[in-house]
Amino acid sequence: MLKATRLAKKLGQWWVLNDITLEVKAGEMLGIIGPNGSGKSTLLRLLSGEEKPDQGEVLFLEKPLHEYSLQERAKQLAVLTQEQVSDLSFTAEEIVMMGRHPYHRSFFGPTPEDERIVCRVMDETETRDMKLHRFNELSGGERQRVSIARVMAQEPKLLMLDEPTTYLDIHYQLAVLDRLKAWQKESFLTVIIVLHDLNLAAQYCDSLLVLKEGRQVRNGTIRQVIEPRLVEEVYGIRPVIVNHPILHIPQVLLTSNC
Ligand SMILES: Nc1ncnc2c1ncn2[C@@H]1O[C@H](COP(=O)(O)OP(=O)(O)OP(=O)(O)O)[C@@H](O)[C@H]1O
Predict the structure, then answer these.
(1) What is the Å distance from ligand 1's center to 42 Cα?
(2) Nearest-angstrom CA–CA distance, 100 and 117
(3) Domain assignment of residue 211, given as a range
(4) Quick one: which atom of ligand 1 is closest to the CA of 214?
(5) pTM score of the predicted model
């Protein structure tokens, strides 16, 4: 689905990403993890075509990403970043309808099909009750769920999310990631997701890419990545790694250094 080869990016006078090579197969969920400032958001911007790499290339469905028109790309690839909506006076429902824009013909409004899709995704993200509320009147967590409904309405083949669980309480962290996982399975959706929470990353992702100081430190299965030496090397903490008693996946327990 997506293949990136030897990506590098310079911002200002610094190379903030170096030599990143990765491949995501259709239907997979790849997690990108790493400390603050390690280059996760920058990498996502290169993979989504929002920014061009200074070196290397991104192929999407075997074609260079920059050869897609904006509309063609938006029908296949949706991105959820932290700073999404510039005009906060739109209602939640209008924001979700924006996800249907790539499918609209000029001068024609939403079709009954668009309305049906918007209704469905607002039900699935539990945002229907707030459909007439203005975006700037919603809490951080409510905005996040509305933004997730918007990318679901876009019906992409590949979805990229930058820290989608920020602002969400534990109920909605699981609800949103469960919804994503179900959507991934039902529609064979491919997902690239930046997560800070290693335990959620271990629970939901099929594989993980670890960045540190703009370089990829490891790219592998959950067990290859969530292991004490690597977590200590990358984050500078001494973790205790246990086996989840029900899910049988590694989970990180934190201990204060004091
Ligand atoms: N416009 C810019 N000019 C110069 N440096 C930048 C610019 N934008 C980001 N950087 C630097 O690039 C590096 C990577 O930033 P990036 O936002 O990709 O990291 P991140 O891993 O997503 O961080 P976080 O976990 O804190 O969100 C950081 O050191 C940051 O200071």
Answers:
(1) 7
(2) 9
(3) 2-227
(4) 14
(5) 0.92
